[in-house]
Amino acid sequence: MTEPLPHITADRCKGTGAAKRRRTPTPAARLARFTRSSLVQAVLLLCAALWLTPTLGLLVTSLRPKEDSSASGWWTVLGEPARLTLDNYTAMLSSGGEAVGAFWNTVLISAPATLLTVALASLAGYAFAWGDFPGRQWLFLTVVGLLVVPVQIGLIPVAKLLGAVGLFGTVPGVVLFHVAYGLPFAVFLLRNQFLEIPQEILEAARIDGCGEWTAFCRLALPLAAPALASLAIFEFLWVWNDMLVALVFAGDDSQPLTVLLQSQMRQFGSNLDVLAPGAFLSLLVPVIVFFSFQRYFVRGTMAGSIK
Fold first, then answer.
1. How far is CA 266 from the centre of its chain?
2. pTM, entire model
């Protein structure tokens, strides 16, 4: 007599199917396994080396004497590394001329613009997230709508306004323009970040006697620190590397490094001893700022993405 077949339940069938699905690699898993291969890593290293070649050339050119830069290419220094010198940087930074003034103008524009944007956007973002006032949603939609307004549209009207109040051609005028055009994105980012704070935490703080200002300073801001750092990086990099706004609104005494380098490009070839170190110095500061706050960058850019 043949033995009866074992009874296969639905749960066992489901379990078998789930096991098969787990054993089947997903496209993402196959891609991750492919990128771990030695050939792909070698190709990526080659691409990174090619990508960094212009930066290396800029660094080497900034360290070469003026006569060498005019006579041969930067790659020839590989055979004569002893020809490298810091004289270009010493002459540029110790002369007290246009380069030093332009560097400090860049700092005086970038730092206040970043701090003001982050401070005002954090206040507005918290108000839009947890405040209760008439027209809150419509006002927030207006702020979001300003994200699509290009900078070029406001150049002439704002220039007339700053000229009427005596701020055209000054550092505060450039700072105010950057703050005004950086606030819509900043408010949108921080409002979504503040919405991720559980409402129960804020209610418990209010029950314990905390006012809105105390809750904002001691609860909301620490919890939103990754988003604040990420926003500060974005704003600083944008303002530091900006040339269009500074070219329009900055005067001769308030021009940043980008405008100075653009004016030096007209004499390209005869002033590489000024252009190369100035360009590399302009590149170095944003890189230092980025790597100083990189641990907050990914967490900050993902703030509010699930809302």
1. 29
2. 0.75
